Amino acid sequence: MAIFETSTFLTFASLLLAARKLALDPDLGSKGEALIALIDNGRALTNALKDSGLTPLAREIAKAAEQADRITHPGPALDDAKAIFAQVAPRAFADPSIFAQSNLDVATTTDAMVAAILASPAAHDFRSTTLAERYFREVCCLTLSTMLADRAYVDSISPELWRESLKRQGITLEIVKEIKEDTTELLALVRELHTIKTTTIPEDTLIAMARKIRPRVADKEEALRELDRAADLAAEAITRGDQGSNVDEFVDGVLRRLAEMTRQGRLDEAKTEADDAVDRAEAGLLQLLDAAINQHILAADAQGAARQIARKVLLECADALDLFEALRRERKVYYERGRDQGLRLDLEIAIALAERCLSAAHGPDQRGAALNDLGTGLAILGERESGTARLEEAVVAYRAALEERTRDRAPLDWAMTQNNLGNVLRTLGARESGTARLEEAVAAYRAALEEQTRDRVPLDWAMTQNNLGAALCNLGT
Q1: What pLDDT digit, counting tens, does each position of 311-332 carry?
Q2: Buried b / exposed e along 89-102 (16+ C-beta atoms within 10 A)
Q3: Which of 201, 292, 348, 396 has the fewest CB atoms within 10 Å, measured from its CB?
Q4: Are 190 and 224 in contact (CB under 8 A)?
Q5: Which residue would you say has higher pLDDT here, 252 or 396?
Q6: Computed from CA positions of residues 274, 279, 281, 285, in that sequence, does the dihedral angle turn out positive or negative?
Q7: Distance between CA 237 and CA 215 in Å, rounded?
Q8: DSSP states of 298-312
């Protein structure tokens, strides 16, 4: 069930015990008396909760109490039932596991609370009158049924419920304070994923991943694609932890912990755990590196993922001289997936890997190739963004590449980079009011055509001619 519905019960339980003002009174008897007063007086409960955004809950409790009054006997018997309610409610609602274990079914939850009361020291008083259990069941069932049936109500208080859920999961107060009032939007994104895909990932985890993705990705469809892939990676992490590695107990223990953290949506903690495990591991390192890469991706940490990918590549390279090409192959996988599937994070990882390729490069040919790769990743990502920062970085990378893969040393590579430079300049020119960028693009394409002749590379010649025509068309417009 949705985490918000669980938290609705948890919040309801806390309110029945203490609301807001009751929390200041350490005496349980006083709490019970005040609780009865709140249930009897919907206005008092509304006033107590008005600053928390939970006033609809106050109304539902008041309505439930009024209905319970009508179907039970008036007089001392009802007064006794209410007094017993005040006595047993703190014990019944104090254990949040009752709500989760009952899968938020109203009848099952109520039965579980009654069973908990009957197993407690309050059982004698609870059994002293048949009206006590009846009153307890009526108030709880009426209130909880209304809460569960009203999706709009749950959504309206979802930010408050999200905070409550995080606190109960032991998430730090600093993180709770940073939560923005965007939980309803994140919940809508998660529900949309459920409509297009069957996934066993807990909703807590999906929301935690969506919270990583949404601030980085403004477009809803793109965010949905990122969440879809993150869900697959989370499922892989959980499956790996459940199945074990058959390597040793250390590896299996780490994988189990990562799976549990992923289930709970503790993505940053899982990332740190995976990194620490990689540092300590003596066996099964490749499996742990794969797990660390996945956890960094789930935490939307492109640089961290690239770092662990590079460690894996280095571990697999028999010859250090092969490291550059091995890194380029990994970069190509992420670049093509990011380009073809519209995944921003994969492109960010490809860019980070290109930077690592540049650091590992030997000689002008490798440096030129790495700079061209870097420009290509920046250009694709820049085309999808409204700003021009990535595109400007791509121009710098391509111009640097041209200083390494010169026309004399590598004429066709030089020409391809000129074409790539022309493409970025044309995109920039289309977003600016002047013609300077478009004129630079035309110059770059014409330079490329000096080496990409029709006889020599006919397909490249045709592609660059087409790009030149588009730039000239933009200029003409």
Answers
A1: 889 888 867 668 899 999 999 9
A2: bbbbbeebebbbeb
A3: 396
A4: no
A5: 396
A6: positive
A7: 24
A8: HTT-HHHHHHHHHHH
